[in-house]
């Protein structure tokens, strides 16, 4: 994936063009915080905003886009169906609720947030939304190869996007290769490892070499690996910093050095045991 500016896109399997760099709004508070973050991103040139029903900020996302002065069709908006809403009818209802909160007529991309026991049934509903023209592209999050094969072997439409946790300490190259062979675009969430990656000594050394910040190095590395990415921030200066990654290129040798940091370390749950992970989190909240 060779892109030279923030307007760069990749073509999905159905021909839809999707921006390679976007803004994630996980944990951005609904209202002024998420609205201001999106306005800052759009002013810099971002044209992809990634939200989800679980983030509870879809209303603010919709307001930010409507008040931006930029035509709706020029902004690529993603949302996701949450675990509690999976299942055929529940998914259809959840989608309508997301559109209602966003005050949109359609979504650009709709994803299954996590593969629960109902994910194949949920995918059937998402296929229907796509066929009905309610969403331009469809995909999944937090899936391993066996989840993807499950959809591929039982459905008519292969996911167009797989959004997974991805950063220098969790590369999963075999899964990226699988997506490449099946014309599925790979997208990173938590590309900066929720800030933890910024303290990595090897990356700090490379950032100094290229006269860039660690976050810029990691985002550039992602894009050079053909992985779309959605770093999240609500701070205007960080949003700008994360966009300044198109005036340099990481050498093949240094790309390998960053790849070598892979330790399979996750900040979120593993897709195969996430139900237990979330159950434990809910228990700890009580």
Automatic annotation (TrEMBL):
It comes from the Bacteria. Belongs to the aldo/keto reductase family. This is Aldo/keto reductase. The keyword DNA damage does not apply. Residues 26-262 form the NADP-dependent oxidoreductase domain. Keywords: NADP, Oxidoreductase. It comes from Autumnicola patrickiae. PROSITE patterns: ALDOKETO_REDUCTASE_1, ALDOKETO_REDUCTASE_3. Signal peptide: none annotated. Pfam families: Aldo_ket_red.
């Amino acid at each position: 994936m060779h892109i030279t500016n923030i307007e760069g896109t990749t073509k999905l399997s159905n021909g839809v063009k999707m921006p390679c760099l976007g803004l994630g709004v996980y944990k951005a508070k609904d209202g002024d915080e998420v609205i201001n973050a999106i306005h800052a991103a759009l002013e810099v040139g971002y044209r992809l905003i990634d939200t989800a029903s679980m983030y509870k900020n879809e209303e603010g996302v919709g307001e930010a886009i409507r008040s931006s002065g930029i035509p709706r069709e020029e902004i690529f908006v993603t949302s996701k169906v949450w675990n509690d809403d999976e299942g055929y009818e529940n998914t259809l209802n959840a989608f309508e609720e997301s559109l209602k909160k966003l005050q949109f007529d359609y979504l650009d991309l709709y994803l299954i947030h996590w593969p629960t026991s109902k994910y194949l049934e949920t995918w059937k509903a998402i296929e229907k939304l796509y066929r009905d023209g309610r969403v331009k592209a469809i995909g999944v999050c937090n899936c391993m190869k066996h989840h993807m094969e499950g959809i591929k072997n039982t459905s008519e439409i292969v996911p167009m996007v797989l959004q997974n946790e991805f950063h220098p300490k969790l590369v999963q190259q075999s899964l990226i290769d699988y997506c490449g062979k099946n014309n599925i675009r790979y997208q990173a969430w938590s590309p900066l490892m929720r800030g933890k990656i910024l303290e990595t000594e090897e990356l700090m050394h490379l950032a100094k070499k290229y006269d860039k910040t660690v976050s810029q190095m990691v985002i550039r590395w992602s894009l050079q690996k053909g992985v779309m990415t959605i770093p999240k921030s609500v701070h205007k200066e960080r949003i700008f910093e994360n966009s300044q990654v198109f005036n340099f290129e990481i050498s093949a040798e240094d790309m390998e050095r960053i790849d070598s940091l892979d330790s399979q370390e996750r900040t979120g749950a593993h897709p195969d045991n996430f139900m237990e992970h979330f159950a434990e989190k809910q228990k700890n909240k009580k």
